[in-house]
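Structure in, sequence out. Go:
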């Protein structure tokens, strides 16, 4: 038996990878997270597939399925929402496989934070604004280490994405405002890439009531950071060096305007 931990992507069934889809098509057993994985992806499975919704199973029950089938020469697809490496609880399953010498592989997926950035039309890393993206969450039933408290993360004023936290948005935006400033731009994306997706934009001092008015209490991401200024101030940042005509890199030579030709990254004239 081989267990594949597959990222299903954020919701849109077309956002699973080709590799993930190919495994899903061959799988004998599929364990999927019904709460956030789009059931449409199950239509790709073989008719004989056995499926389990992990929303109703605890860890021991999932492990019991692995154990029961450990001698079976087939494929188990364990489908996680987004990318399995982010709040996916895969480590304990991988550790189990390592201990029991069960073959396994992780197939990454598109995380919801990437889908949220896409629907916001937002690059998260703008030159001179922020070159760092922090993925975190507010403490809930799962505590967050003190060194990663919201106050400490906010002090960096980097692009910040909070998972699993929208129910605490009022308290969080108050804390975030202490570092980012009360009028810092903020967005909440509910069910990014699903047909019922909602985008709420605002500032740290007004987004909480907008989110409440939309009735959003779960399945959403909070995005904060100066980069979001791009929504109402196009080109407020320094343009990327990557496509700057004056900048050479490994794959492209700079344009030497005076000579009308290109120079390579060492400054010598190239043939263009
Ligand atoms: N592994 C997942 C995250 C799982 S934790 C990933 O990579 O996206 C579950 C949390 O992810 C939710 O509470 C919500 O904060 C976020 N989330 C998952 N799918 C989402 C979506 N389509 N839109 C917005 N947030 C989503």
């Amino acid at each position: 038996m081989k267990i594949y931990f597959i990222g299903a992507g954020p919701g849109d069934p077309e956002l699973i990878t080709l590799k993930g889809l190919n495994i899903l098509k061959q799988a004998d057993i599929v364990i999927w997270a019904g709460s956030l994985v789009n059931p449409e992806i199950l239509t790709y499975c073989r008719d004989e597939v056995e499926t389990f919704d992990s929303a109703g199973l605890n860890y021991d029950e999932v492990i019991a399925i692995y154990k029961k089938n450990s001698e079976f020469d087939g494929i188990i697809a364990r489908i996680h929402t987004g990318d399995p490496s982010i709040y996916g609880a895969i480590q304990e399953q991988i550790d189990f496989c390592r201990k029991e010498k069960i073959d396994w592989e992780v197939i990454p997926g598109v995380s919801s934070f990437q889908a949220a950035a896409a629907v916001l039309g937002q690059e998260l890393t703008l030159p001179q604004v922020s070159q760092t993206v922090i993925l975190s969450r507010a403490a809930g039933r799962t505590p967050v280490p003190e060194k990663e408290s919201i106050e400490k993360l906010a002090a960096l004023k980097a692009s910040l994405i909070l998972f699993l936290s929208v129910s605490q948005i009022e308290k969080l935006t108050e804390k975030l405002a202490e570092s980012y400033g009360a009028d810092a731009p903020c967005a909440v994306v509910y069910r990014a890439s699903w047909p019922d997706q909602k985008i709420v934009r605002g500032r740290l001092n007004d987004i909480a009531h907008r989110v409440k008015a939309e009735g959003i209490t779960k399945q959403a991401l909070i995005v904060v950071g100066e980069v979001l200024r791009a929504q109402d101030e196009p080109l407020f940042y320094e343009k990327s060096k990557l496509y700057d005509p004056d900048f050479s890199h490994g794959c492209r030579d700079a344009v030497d305007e005076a000579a009308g030709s290109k120079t390579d990254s060492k400054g010598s004239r190239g043939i263009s």
